[in-house]
Amino acid sequence: MFIRNAWYVAATSQELADKPLARTLLGEKVVLFRGTDGAPTALEDRCCHRLAPLSLGDVEAGGIRCRYHGMKFDTRGQCIEIPGQDSIAPGMCVRAFQVVERHGFCWIWMGRPDLANADDIVDVHWNRAPEWPTASGYIHYKANYQLIADNLLDFSHLTFVHRTTLANAALVDARPEITAFDRGIRLNRLIVACDPSPLHGMAGKFTGKVDFWTRQVWWLPSIFENWAGSVPTGGTGEAHERAGGLHLRHFSLLTPETAQSTHYFWVQPCQFPHNEPGMIEKVGKGIDTAFAEDRWMIEAQQVVMNDSPDVKPKAIRADAALGRVRFMIDRLLEQERAASPA
Ligand code: FES
Ligand SMILES: [Fe+2]
To answer: Where residue 220 sits, what CATH number does that domain have?
Structure first.
């Protein structure tokens, strides 16, 4: 049901402290913790003795101790101590998952261990880079991640859902240039001499028409990179390369929780064409408002879909990008199914 051979965000770096964190990821209960050496660890959240959640346990040097009968597991999930017992059978273990901490996130691999390659983690280095003031947030969504993906890949909803934030009347007719590559699709748009959206107008302090661009990447299965910006119209050269522009380097990082819920992490590193203090906080508020607008619609859509499971959506022209991504995800799922042991 979910693509497993992929790196997903399990938690932000700040979320992982000395207390274990219980989180359901791809339908599995996982305990995440930072060992006494500071390294992040992810284990199945189910003690192999009597199935108590390890997330109720205590982090100790070299592992975690179950709070029920005190068995201790190392960071590979192997039991290394059973109180009152000298020998430990090799099968006394819980599943361990690979975790890599990078760019402010703890990334987890829950697929075939031999296929995990940390070089494949999407580059989010703008997150909290000193020259990129960053707003960020987390939303727990009561909807399948593919409905959120559909929304992020379809900018025709901006005009209607985000009237006070991201709406740009020119977007309805602006068809993106879509190109596929081996890890997803790229979408580029340029709208010349338009009115800035409310958010861009506020953040860029633009007084006239702008050239507005989005250079997006959908990284399969569920990461959306959106380099969007505006610059006063009329200059020479590519809009996104001209001086005086507003740059928003957005990432939406979706991690399925269950078939009906999603962990939604987002970061919004920005560069402004001015030095007005407090602007990043205002942008963060604008994104919060916009994402609440999306959630209002998508969670309602999920409820209707649950009530009418046999009704299939009908596509329109604006669905071109999301249709391609859905097709690619189905193909990856099929490949994983075919490669998994019977
Ligand atoms: S259930 Fe964990 S030690 Fe018994
Ligand atoms: Fe939206």
So the answer is: 3.90.380.10
Into how many domains does the chain fold? Answer: 2
Q: What is the DSSP string of 47-99?
A: -TTT---GGGSEEETTEEE-TTT--EEETTSBEEEBTTBS---TT-B--EEEE
CATH number at residue 102: 2.102.10.10
pTM of the model: 0.95
User: How many angstroms separate the alpha carbon of residue 11 from the centre of ligand 1?
Assistant: 26
Per-residue pLDDT of the chain (342 residues; tens, 9 = 90+): 899 999 999 999 999 987 999 999 999 999 999 998 999 999 999 999 999 999 999 999 999 999 999 999 999 999 999 999 999 998 999 999 999 999 999 999 999 999 999 999 999 999 989 999 999 999 999 999 999 999 999 988 888 888 877 777 777 677 889 999 999 999 999 999 999 989 999 999 999 999 999 999 999 999 999 999 999 999 899 999 999 999 999 999 999 999 999 999 999 999 999 999 999 999 999 999 999 999 999 999 999 999 999 999 999 988 999 999 999 999 999 999 999 875
76 and 188 in a single domain? The answer is no
Of all ligands present, the nearest one to the C-alpha of 47 is: 1
Token output for 150: 């559909």
Q: Say if residue 209 is in the same domain as residue 275.
A: yes
Same domain assignment for residues 273 and 141:
yes
Cβ within 8 Å of residue 198, ≥6 positions away:
164, 165, 166, 167, 286
- Residues lining ligand 1, judged by CB closer than 6 Å? 47, 49-50, 52, 66, 68-71
Q: Which ligand is nearest to the CA of 67?
A: 1
Residue 35's domain spans which residues? 7-115
- Let me know whether 138 and 287 are in one domain: yes
Same-domain pairing of 87 and 218: no
Tokens at 93, concatenated: 């273990």
Does 125 map to a domain? no
Ligand 1, atom 4, lies closest to the CA of 69
Strand partners, 190: 213
Nearest-CA residue for ligand 1 atom 3 is 69
Ligand with an atom nearest the CA of residue 159: 2
Task: Tell me how far apart the terminal alpha carbons of the chain are, to the nearest angstrom.
Answer: 16
Pocket test for ligand 1, best of 47, 56, 60, 88 (most atoms within 8 A of CB): 47
Atom in ligand 1 nearest the alpha carbon of residue 71? 3
